[in-house]
Amino acid sequence: MEMFRFDRAETVVDRFGSTGTAATGVAAGEGAVRLTCLTITPGGVLGAHPAPVEQLFLVVAGEGWVAGPDGTRVPVSAGDAVHWATGEQHGSGSTTGLTALALEGPSVRHLAPAAGGPAAG
């Protein structure tokens, strides 16, 4: 067993007009699958940009907003997940702080919950 922290905020993200955002690579796998921990500080923004591949944005702490191609900000909080398709313009931010895991890869798909029930898996 090997223990490590994934919320280290190793790399400041300043592309796409981003502010108050940092990323830590957590894992990578076959087929260009990658898991990244994103930390958005209070008032921070991860600027709008196209998804390079299929992407799941899993909010694990805090609250904030996400936006798709139309720029409309939709509130999110811990436990919420967002899927962005390859090439889809998107951004995110927070007034109080947010931590999310971004799972990316050409074959990444989410498992939709059954109608009225918990997520299948």
UniProtKB/TrEMBL annotation:
Matches recorded under Gene3D superfamilies: Jelly Rolls (2.60.120.10)
Domain Cupin type-2: 39-96
InterPro entries: Cupin_2, RmlC-like_jellyroll, RmlC_Cupin_sf
Top-rank taxon: Bacteria
Spans through the membrane: none
Coiled coil (residue ranges): none
Any Pfam family hit: Cupin_2
Entry protein name: Cupin type-2 domain-containing protein
Species of origin: Kitasatospora arboriphila
